[in-house]
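Open question from group meeting: does this chain pack into something compact, or does most of it stay loose? Before anyone orders reagents, we agreed to write out a predicted structure and look at it together. Recording both the input and the output here so the notebook holds the full record.
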Amino acid sequence: MPEISKEIKLDLTDVPAGERDNVKRDVGDFVINEILRSVAGGNSPVQGEGKFKALNRNYAKDSKQGNNTANLQLTGEMLRTDLDFKLTPAGIRIEVKGNSEDRADGHNQLSSKAKNWANKIGFPKRRFIPDGRQGFTSAIKSGYRGIIEDAKVIEEEPEIEDTSPEPTPGTGAIPENDIRDTTSISFLLSDEAIEREIIRELKRRGR
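Structure tokens returned:
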């Protein structure tokens, strides 16, 4: 049987080691749900594939109560039962296993056998698993990257030490050897500057 799968490599560098498998599972659940959501609306979750070709009118009337949306859910087994994911060293692998592999290959047309068969009978491609050169849509990528981002360790900003001079005890005045711009207009008009001048004048008068 053909292997219908796609590995998604995940950058978990800044995720705590003990949380990485949990993050992989969260990503896997998210991607599976997004595949199901996209396909239910007749859209491919694969970048560049777009909307699925609608079902033949007679087939839709006979098998889907007239609904011609190609949602690949005639019995539900392929997507609801056999579509799953597993963890890999580099990330996760989305795959179709069990009795649905041949059917999934027919829709995705990943193997040369499935492509030849589809070309021969004119069966439309409805891809929900990317091939080796493709990826999932940008919306799906953005979603699972957000899951990873939320799990990263956030480094706290270092506290900046307050190096401003302390007032002289009992006076509230800044020491006279304080190094600052005492010529600026804002300083000369400040209460601190006025208080300093009063203290200097009292010292000059010997009080």
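Observations to bring back to the group:
Helices lie at 20-40, 57-63, 77-81, 101-108, 112-121, 138-151, 185-188, 191-204.
The first strand starts at residue 4 and ends at 9.
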